[in-house]
Amino acid sequence: MFERALGSGERAGLVIYGRAGVGKTRLADECADQAAASGHPAQRVAGSRTTALLPLGGVAALLPDGLGGLGPDGQVNPVALFEQTRQALHERHRGRRLVIVADDVALLDAASLALLGYLAAQRSIFLIATVRTGEPVPDLLTDLWRDGRLERVDLHDLSRAHVDTLLHLALGGPIEGGAGREFWEATRGNPLYLHELTLGALDSGALVERSGVWHLEDFLPATSRLLDLVEQRIGGLPAEARSVVELLALCQPVELGYLETAAPAGVLESLERAGLVTIAVAEAQVRLAHPLHARVVRAAMPKLRARAVLLAQAERLEAAGSAPGPAELRIAVWRLDAGAQPDPAVLARGAHLARYAHDFRMVRRLMEAVPGEDLDAVGALLLGEALYELGAFDASERVLALGQELPSSEHTALLLAVTRAKNAQWGLCQPEKALAINAAARAVVTSPPLAEELVADEASVLTFSGQPDRALAVLGRTTSGDQRARAVRAIAGAVALASAGRTAEALALARDGHADHVALGDEPGIAHPAMHVVNQVFALTEAGRLAEAEQVGRAGAEIVASQRVPIAQIWFAINLGRVAILQGRLTTARRCYAEAAGLAQSSRFAGSRRVALSGLALAHAMLGEPDAAAQALAERAAVPPFGFLGPEQRLADAWAASAARRPAESAEAFRAAAAEAAATGHRVTESWLLHDLMRTSGEDVSARLSELASACDSQLVSARARHAAAARARGGAELSGAADDFESLGALLLAAEAAGGAADAFGRAGDRRAATAALRRSTALAAACEGANTPGLLHLATVNAAAADPLSGREREVVLLAATGMASKDIAERLYLSVRTVNNHLQHAYAKLGVTSRAGLTQALGSTL
Amino acid sequence: MTPEQITLVQSSFDRLGPDLPALTARFYQEVFQRDPALRPLFPSDLAELRVKFAQKLTEIVQSMPRLAELLVHTRALGARHVGYGVRTRDYQTIGDSLIAALAAVLGEEFDAQTHEAWVLAYTLVAETMLEGAAAARPIGS
């Protein structure tokens, strides 16, 4: 458009409208560069508050030497001066049209504007002007505009989608949801702020990449360049208006009624007109229009001034007689911001409110401000829980241990013990310590429901440290209990039952537990309700109901992602990774596990991260990527051991050794892990390990797998057992049956491997047609496995090569005609052959293609010819 | 896009499976309905184009998690589309048509989150196609 306007001669210029920072100058510069590239001279003039004071100050660079002086009558003759300037420019640029970029044209002095208007009208320049939204538009532009001689471009702030896309492209990869939202909320689509904030966040290390995904680890920093930018925007404000901006930056939202009396008349209006504040009429509240302004103004304010404003506002609100509630929280926060000591009781009440809103940062801030001697057991519980949620596990342990020393109700004592044990288990990765804390609490508890809960909690520690059998024994000691105890028991019990191969009970418990937990609401010291849904996915997977597991897992993952529950997000991703591994969708599995590992690192849960990294290594190994698998294992080695899914974690070591062609080490790793699984009651995992031992080494594991199949109500465990028995018998039909089983479960990689085994068995038995059919099936199944590269398929490849017996030229001709539906007699005529020869060729081709009829030919042709 | 949104785009696309031809047919229908002036840019028989479109869409969706790979596809695609006479403003029409076609074919599965993920995916593709287009367009054209 710019090129067309410049070339047409009709147009005198281009005007770019938009808000500050939207990219007007950038676009104008790009146009000037483009003009320069096509042979036009280009020059910049810029308005500013300084040049606006001098006539022609903004365009001094255009004026030829010696023309700035006075005429004989002591006056400047503008017309003569303008015309001389035009001629001088014409000569200087040899008749080519000069492109002038007038940035912030509204800030130019009137004389400069008149000169530019004259030159543009005479077509000796092409004017590119930028105008900030809200600034008055100079007459020069309105005149040209009225004559239809200006092109107008309106630049808008970026939409949410465009902010996201710009970040994706600038960072070179996807960005975690919360981080994307933070950038959007801070910039509201202002490209300049987005640019500065992104650079600042990269610089400060707040924005980091892990496993290909960008995470925000810290608050977005206010860089000095951002301070400058915002200062430019509000620097010219009169003192009264600036006070209002500062007040809002510290205390927003502020009641409209108060500001109307506190600020001189007109100030609020002018701020609103300039787009600096927004007024929510319905709520009668005023805020700064741009969230970033608040942050930057706060950072730039002198501390003493900020303190005075905050304390004055706190007193004002207090004098207005606020009831305990949100207003009290605001007062407490302002006092803290001002460096004053608020009333500890107010802080604690504020922390309860913040806890209710899941704002754990605020809970921590408020409770850490309570002097040590004023901290009671309830306060310690609040602070300890917040520290745990924020990943400060050592500090959480200290505070909760201290809280247990303080006098408290039995209920609070229980919550302290439960939270401290949870921190020891999940945060510190020390299950023994968690059990000790639990045992100490059980020794003194008197109320039966609380005792029930502590027993359920003991089972939870056992389950999530990889001891399902012990957990189930403990759960056997409890029967009743209230809703809360039932919910805690369901979390531990569902996973333990599923691991033990009692998948139907596990699923029922997970569903009941979810119902109990939802009815219970959000309470401290207990996992998020979504964890019951994670457990449903786990139970469905262990049962071999992979499609359902995937469906529930995806739905759950979407919900917790939108609600930002990191722990549930991590476990949904891990469970979706497990499902994908079993389905044979290996790149999907790799993606899920990588996502889980990244999320776990952000939220500092080392144990979950260890499980995720194990899965990641497993996926890499099964994709035939031994180096990447080794790298994931090396990363895992830096994370403390974590017992949950312990034997399953060892799949990664065994598969990595197999992928790196160390078969003896691999087999030994499978056997050791299977022994651990057997000793701890992980029956489903034991069958997985033994089956994979068979897949990688060919070792006969059929006897134990058959025992496990009868001990578990899992179709997957049964299918593994049948596969092992068929492999032992080397029966083609039995192996095909195993492939059917796996395929019906959606375990396509296992189905492909079983079908490959069947082809091998049929081949050895001399049944060439069945062998080819099995091979074709195996190949088709393997194609759905997203690049799987397992020994079971390697084996298939060698069979494939041996059996590869391409059709001869004649066979191919005959088959192609037959596939069109042509009768043998007609084919014979067409190819000058006897009908008998045609039929012979067809029979050979059928055998090679593994089909029995003409109908099967068309389908088979695609891949073989 | 978030990793979850990429997964959502890929999984909803996977679920199309055999309905992919229905999607492409619907897509062209939506495009011409929105802007009949675009019809002459396409050959009268769309059969071959539909297959190509489906292939390209599949490649792009699969490469979504790896930006470098995605850019290889989309930049070249953008550059090629300059030659076909596609203008910048047509990208909006095409994006709206794709989203409408997905909504029609996926039905209830095309919920608000899937919708948002696809809008972001299309924005990413369109922006990078436009980069490719800008690089291909000679100055002064």
In short:
The complex is a heterodimer of chains A (865) and B (141). By secondary structure, chain A is mainly alpha-helical.
SSE map:
The complex is a heterodimer of chains A (865) and B (141).
Chain A (H helix, E strand, L loop, with lengths): L1 H7 L4 E6 L5 H14 L4 E5 L31 H15 L5 E6 L6 H12 L3 E8 L6 H8 L3 E5 L5 H12 L5 H11 L3 H14 L2 E4 L2 E4 L7 H11 L4 H13 L2 E2 H7 L4 H7 L3 E4 L4 E4 L2 H10 L2 H17 L6 H12 L6 H13 L3 H9 L8 H13 L3 H13 L4 H18 L3 H14 L3 H16 L4 H8 L7 H18 L2 H18 L9 H13 L3 H18 L2 H18 L2 H17 L3 H17 L3 H12 L8 H14 L3 H18 L2 H15 L4 H10 L3 H15 L2 H14 L2 H17 L3 H16 L7 H13 L5 H11 L4 H8 L3 H15 L4 H11 L1
Parallel strand pairs in A: 1-4, 1-5, 2-3, 3-4
Antiparallel strand pairs in A: 6-7, 8-10, 9-10
Chain B lengths: L2 H14 L3 H15 L12 H17 L3 H17 L6 H17 L5 H25 L5
Helix pairs in contact in B: 1-6, 2-3, 2-5, 3-4, 4-6, 5-6
Oligomer: heterodimer
User: Structural class given helices, strands, pairing of chain A?
Assistant: mainly alpha
* Beta-strand proportion of chain B: under 5%
What is the CA–CA distance across the termini of chain B?
34 Å
Round the Cα radius of gyration of chain A to an integer and report it.
37 Å
- Helix and strand content put the structural class of chain B at mainly alpha
Number of separate helices of chain A: 44
Please estimate the helix content of chain A: 55-70%
Number of strands of chain B: 0
User: Mean pLDDT across all residues of chain A, rounded?
Assistant: 85
Task: Describe the protein's architecture and organization.
The complex is a heterodimer of chains A (865) and B (141). Chain A is built from 44 helices and ten strands. With 865 residues, chain A is mainly alpha-helical. Chain A starts with a helix and ends with a helix. Chain B is an all-alpha fold and 141 residues long. Helices cover 74% and strands 0% of the residues of chain B. In chain B, helix 1 crosses helix 6, helix 2 (20-34) crosses helix 3 and helix 2 (20-34) crosses helix 5. The N and C termini of chain B lie far apart (34 Å). Chain A binds chain B through residues 3, 7, 34, 37-38, 161-162, 164-166, 168-169, 172-177, 180, 212-213, 554, 557-558, 561-562, 591-592, 595, 598, and chain B through 1-8, 11, 65-68, 113, 119-120, 123-124, 127-128, 139-141.
